[in-house]
Each structure stands twice: as structure tokens, then as C-alpha cells.
Amino acid sequence: MEITHVINVYTEEGTLTYEVLDGWWTDGGTFESLLRENNFVAQTGANKLAVRVGAGSGRAAEETV
Questions:
Q1: How far is CA 40 from CA 1, 26, 33, in A?
Q2: Helix (H, G, I), strand (E, B) or coil at 53
């Protein structure tokens, strides 16, 4: 099943929603593009995520994982 089919079903049902996300996105639809994207992530650290830890304790801190 293609993603466009899923999007069309949600649209027809009137249940399609979306959100705009910060950051970057790329389509790894071929072996060559997947390799290029993996190399980009490895070279730039684009896979590092800043997450909030301890948010419930009142002492939240950002940590890179």
C-alpha cells in the first residue's frame, strides 16, 4: 500500500490531520539516497536529539541522546 493511498482514505473520511515539524526530512526511496542520507547523519550529527529528562521532578534538563 502506498502512503498516497492512505492519505486519500483519510481525506475521504475527513479525518486527515497534519503537523509541521522542525528539522529536516528526506526520502530514502532508493539504495543510493538511503546511503547518502545515512552518510549525512553520520557526518553532521543530525541524529542527535535533545530530549527533556526529569520533567516531572521540577529539575528538567536537556540531554543529547
A1: 29, 11, 10
A2: strand
